[in-house]
């Protein structure tokens, strides 16, 4: 378990401090996260400011994002949102930024071994004041000897609603599981829906199941959040994002696109 606290340096710089309760398993995750995130340099991936490991406390220090996470902005109560709801140009900017971060992690321009994040979700995407997304929380991330390599996981980790079928059912780990989770995030951005919700028709509680039924009906525009204006360039961008999401959430990993 971990808790995140806000802090402030003497020069006024705001920071987020992630504090983990030490154990053998958590220490392994802690060291792994430091090893990966310290090698990542991309404007859409959260940079590690510092870390501390003493007196049974493990701490990771990152820049503080005042607007909070994409999950809070899209799905939180109005009073919880740190800033206005995202309009379409902002949602599109978030989608492109996260795509660029994942492309980088999966080997596009990365100087070291590719990385599989394994926990891509809206709560792990922080939003800066100028709406630049920052992919964070590399606690479950793994190095991959090959960007398309399949490694069988020891046990399931990640978040329900974002887990790719091949991982959920067979424990198979590859960069395609990040692609699937990114598809779920795209669906959240374009539709405004949560990954899993108790309301709605039976069998469509999952955003993926709902989206697949809409796509099979050939009406991509029905995926779009009705609160978003669909005039001008927006309509074309929304349809392209909806199509990209549909490709990313395909059941078979080999037919999903690469980032």
UniProtKB/TrEMBL annotation:
Family matches, as Gene3D superfamilies: Phosphorylase Kinase, domain 1, Transferase(Phosphotransferase) domain 1
Pfam families: Pkinase
Protein name, UniProt field: Protein kinase domain-containing protein
Signal peptide limits: none
A GO MF label: ATP binding
Entry-linked PANTHER family: OS08G0249100 PROTEIN, PROTEIN KINASE DOMAIN-CONTAINING PROTEIN
The organism's place on the tree of life at top rank: Eukaryota
Protein kinase domain mapped to chain residues: 1-259
Annotated PROSITE patterns: PROTEIN_KINASE_DOM (PS50011), PROTEIN_KINASE_ST (PS00108)
């Amino acid at each position: 378990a971990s808790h995140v606290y806000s802090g402030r340096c003497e020069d006024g710089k705001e920071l987020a401090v992630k504090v983990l309760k030490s154990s053998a398993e958590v220490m392994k995750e802690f060291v792994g996260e430091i090893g990966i995130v310290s090698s990542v340099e991309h404007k859409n991936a959260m940079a590690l400011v510092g870390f501390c490991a003493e007196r049974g406390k493990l701490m990771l220090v990152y820049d503080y994002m005042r607007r909070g996470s994409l999950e809070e902005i899209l799905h939180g109560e109005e009073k919880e949102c740190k800033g206005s709801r995202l309009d379409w140009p902002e949602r599109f900017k978030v989608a492109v930024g996260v795509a660029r971060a994942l492309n980088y992690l999966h080997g596009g321009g990365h100087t070291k071994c590719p990385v599989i994040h394994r926990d891509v979700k809206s709560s792990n995407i922080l939003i800066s004041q100028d709406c630049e997304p920052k992919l964070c929380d590399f606690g479950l991330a793994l190095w991959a000897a090959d960007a398309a390599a399949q490694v069988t996981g020891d046990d399931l980790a990640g978040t329900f609603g974002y887990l790719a079928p091949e991982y959920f059912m067979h424990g198979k780990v590859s960069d395609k599981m990040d692609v699937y989770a990114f598809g779920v995030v795209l669906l959240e951005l374009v539709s405004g829906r949560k990954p899993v919700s108790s309301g709605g028709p039976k069998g469509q509680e999952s955003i993926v199941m709902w989206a697949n039924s809409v796509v099979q009906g050939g009406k991509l525009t029905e995926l779009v959040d009705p609160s978003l204006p669909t005039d001008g360039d927006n309509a074309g961008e929304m349809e392209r994002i909806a199509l990209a999401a549909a490709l990313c959430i395909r059941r078979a990993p080999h037919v999903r696109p690469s980032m």
